[in-house]
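Data availability (excerpt). The following record was deposited with the supplementary files.
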Amino acid sequence: MPKSLKGLMIATDVGFLIYWTITFLHLIPPEYLYQDYHNELLVAWNLSFVPLDLFISITGLWSISCYNRGHALWKPLAIVSLVMTSCSGLQAIAFWSFRLDLDPMWWTPNLFLLIYPLFYLPRLIKAGQQKRIGALTGSSEVSDEV
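Predicted structure:
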């Protein structure tokens, strides 16, 4: 696992846990809340991300734990976490786009979530494919590193 990926996943996964904690404790200052924050429908929309974001954090942190212990499960967990991270960002960006709400306070972190996984997913998927091909052909020359 590249150090940059590990750092970004830790920042993202812990960031989600912190975000949802301060959200549920109502610690976000009013000037940083999204537009129409008190609209029940928008609050429900925001809360609909809780299961996805928590699953992202669980799979991401689990992946890092597996990597640190040398367990091959780290790679599929990382792929799942990164795909879901990108989807989470995409869903938020799509929503704010349809509303024509261009607040950089919400666009910036969601563009980050959408884009950063795309730099790592192709390598992780390709490495997994090469490992499967190696297993089929009896070759052991494929590294588990990305």
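Summary of structural features: Helices lie at 3-24, 40-47, 50-68, 74-98, 104-137.
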